[in-house]
Specification:
Number of strands: 4
Strand order of the largest sheet: 2-1-4-3
Number of domains: 2
Radius of gyration: 23 Å
Bound molecules: zinc ion
Order of helices and strands: HHEEEEH
Number of helices: 3
Largest sheet: 4 strands, antiparallel
Structural class: alpha+beta
Helix content: 40-55%
Shape: elongated
Distance between the termini: 61 Å
Length: about 140
Amino acid sequence: MTEQQPQKKKGINTFSTFYLIILLIFVVSMWFLFRAIIFYQEGLMDEFMTSTLIAAMGLATSGYMLFQMRRRTEAITAMVQKSEVVSVLECAKCGFKNLRKFLKGDHVFKVVELCPRCSADSLMITAIYQQEDEKAKSQA
Ligand SMILES: [Zn+2]
């Protein structure tokens, strides 16, 4: 069995590391899928079921991670663009609503800070969207 290790490059960013992990999970899943076929041919149903389950979970995980990474990449790309991305903060208790500039790490359903109005509940991000240039200018 030959192992091909990727050469370590300077400045490998988190994104390529993430994609590498996704790829690794995918490859392992395919290997389990391959084993499952062999087990099936040999009539080892228990092993077949286990391998299929692991392969399915692995494929689902890598697919989900890829989907999340794409979303994150899109969010960051949007941030880089001229128009401003804003996060909507909302209090579930009193309905207090606040708009602030999108910060790195923001995501919908993220609990950020205590509600300044009622102090009984925390503000949660309910929406993240890109504001049009003109609106952003008039608010400044
Ligand atoms: Zn509140």
